[in-house]
Every structure is written in structure tokens, then in C-alpha cells.
Amino acid sequence: MSDETPNDTRDTSGRFVKRAAEKAHRLHTPSEDGVHPVAKILFGWTEAKVAGTAIFWGIGLLSAFLIVIDLAVDRHEYVHMAEATGFYALWGFAAFAFVVLMGWPLGRLLRRSESYYGDPGGPPSDIDPDIPAVPDAAPTYPDEGDEH
């Protein structure tokens, strides 16, 4: 019985390692366009021209289906306004819009000025560049270099 397998696919013990190693290498090496192969497997379908349209209409149909289901549910809410059809969808959208829109004034409130850390082009104004810096003689850790 003869072995028809080329010798370049087996190692010295006869195992098929080259093909497995090349396959593993292909799965972990980004392509020329910089995309990881696993990313292509998981998200490659989003490159299709109809992907955005399909997602848009899919979410729209799911929303319409949930509103139709909401018509069939008999609600007994504490607040009478919550019994309206699509109330939770509108409430969720309003809450989401509020959080997103409040990011703008919050960012302006918390944002530092452009010159907060000083001039990025040189040393700080309170340090004289002509005086040499004294190296820190203390060890990084208190017990560094000590033998017990």
C-alpha cells in the first residue's frame, strides 16, 4: 500500500501539520486590507449593498409587529396613561433622546479648556530648563535591593 500524500504536508512523525498550521495562520493573520479573518466571518455580511436596507426594514417590521401585539395585550396599569398603545415605545424613545441630548450640556460643563495642561510645545512655565534635574536616589520599592 503506497502513500499518495506529498511529503511536504507531513512532519517527521507522519502527522499532517503543514496544512493545519497554514489554516491556523490564515485565521490569525489580517488580510492586505487590514481586516481580521474572524471579523470577516462574523461581520462580512454587512458589506453587502442590501445589508443596511435589510436591517432598517427588519427593525421596522419588528417594531410594527410589537405594536400589533401590544393591541392584543390587556393591560392593568397603575397609571392610566401607560395603557395607551405604544406607550412604552414612546417612553423609551423619549428617555433615550433625553439622555443623548443631555450629553451636550454635560460635556460643556465638564470639559476642560484647551490650555488646561499648559503649552503643549515646551516645558511648563514654572520649571527653569537651565537647571539640571536631580535624579531620584530612592529605590522604587522600599525593600528593593535589600536581602533578608
Q: How would you spell out the order of helices and strands? A: HHHH
The total count of helices amounts to 4
Helicity range of the residues?
Answer: 40-55%
**Major sheet:** none
Unreliable residue runs: none
Average pLDDT metric: 78
What portion of the residues fall into strands of 2 or more residues?
under 5%
Helix- and strand-based class?
mainly alpha
Q: Give the C-alpha Rg.
A: 32 Å
Termini, distance in Å?
69 Å
Shape descriptor: flat
Please describe what this structure looks like.
It contains four helices and no strands. Among the domains are: 8-47, no CATH class; 48-109. The longest helix is centred in the middle third of the chain and has 24 residues, at 87-110. By secondary structure, the protein is an all-alpha fold. It is flat, with a radius of gyration of 32 Å. The mean pLDDT is 78.
Task: Note the main attributes of this structure.
flat; mainly alpha; 43% helix; 4 helices; 148 residues
Outline the secondary-structure elements.
Blueprint: H1 18-28, H2 37-43, H3 51-72, H4 87-110
Question: What's the quick description here?
Answer:
By secondary structure, the chain is mainly α. It is built from 4 helices and no strands.
